[in-house]
Amino acid sequence: MKLTAVELGKKIKAGEISVADAVQSCLDRIKTLENDINAFVTVDAEGAMLQAEEIQRKIDSGELTGPLAGVPVAIKDNMCTEGLLTSCSSKILSNFIPTYTSEAVLKLREAGAVIIGKTNMDEFAMGSTTETSFYGSTQNPWDVSKVPGGSSGGSAAAVAAEEVPYALGSDTGGSIRQPAAFCGVTGIKPTYGRVSRYGLIAYGSSLDQIGPIARDVTDCATVLEIICGHDDKDSTSYDADRDYEKNGITDTGNDFTSALVDDVKGMKIGIPRDYFGEGIDEDVKKHVLAAADVLKEKGAVVEEFDLGMVEYAIPAYYIIASAEASSNLERFDGVKYGYRTSEYTDLHNMYKKSRSEGFGDEVKRRIMLGSFVLSSGYYDAYYVKALKTKALIKKAFDDAFEKYDVILGPVAPTTALVKGESLSDPLKMYLGDIYTVSVNLAGIPGISLPCGFDRNGMPIGLQLLGQTFDEKSIIRAAYAYECSREYKRPELLTERGL
Amino acid sequence: MVITDETIEYVGILAKLELSDEAKEQAKKDMSDMLDYVSKLNELDTDNVPAMSHAFPVNNVFREDVVTSGDTREQLLSNAPEQKDGCYKVPKTFD
Question: In this structure, is residue B29 part of a structural domain?
Answer without folding.
Answer: yes
